[in-house]
Request: fold
Amino acid sequence: MHATLCDLMTDLIQNAVEADAAVIELIIREAEENLEFEVRDNGKGMNSETKAKATDPFYSDGRKHAHRRMGLGLPFLFQTAEAAGGEASIESEEGRGTVIRFCAKTRHVDLPPFGDFAGAAAMMLTLLPEGEMTIARTVNGAGYTLSRRELEDALGDLRSAGKLKLLKAYIASQEEDLRKAG
Reply:
C-alpha cells in the first residue's frame, strides 16, 4: 500500500519510465480545498482494452513484470482518490503516451499525508535513463518548476550521492519558499 501521495506519484513516474517515455511531466497543484496532480508521458500508451483493465488489481499484462499476476499501482491511485472525496482518470493512446490525473479534497480524513516531496522528487528526477522530466509544483498560486536537463547542466550527473544530496537540498529550499509564500 502507498503510505503517502509522494509514493503514488513515484509509482506513476516509474510506470512512465517502464513505458519507454522520453518526456515525463509531473504537475502538482495544491490549494485550500483541492490537491491535484497529473503525470504526462510520451511512452507506449495503452490500447482501449488495456486501459479498461488498468484499474483492475487482478490484471497485469505480464510483460512489465513477468513474475507478477496483478498490478496494484493504478488501482491504489483510484481507490485513494475515491476515498478522499476526489477522482482519478486515465487518458491514453497506444503509441502516443498517457496522462494520469488525480484530484482529492485536501482536508479529507482519508487523504494520505503528502510525504517527503524533496526526497521523492529527487529520486523521480533520476529514474528516467535519458530524456526530459519536469516537475511543476504550485501551492496556493506560488510555485516552481524543476527541469532535469537544466539541473544536469548545473550539477552534472544527478545520480551520484553528492549530487543527489545537493538536489534534495535544493528542492527542500523550494518547498520552504512555498510554505513561506502560502
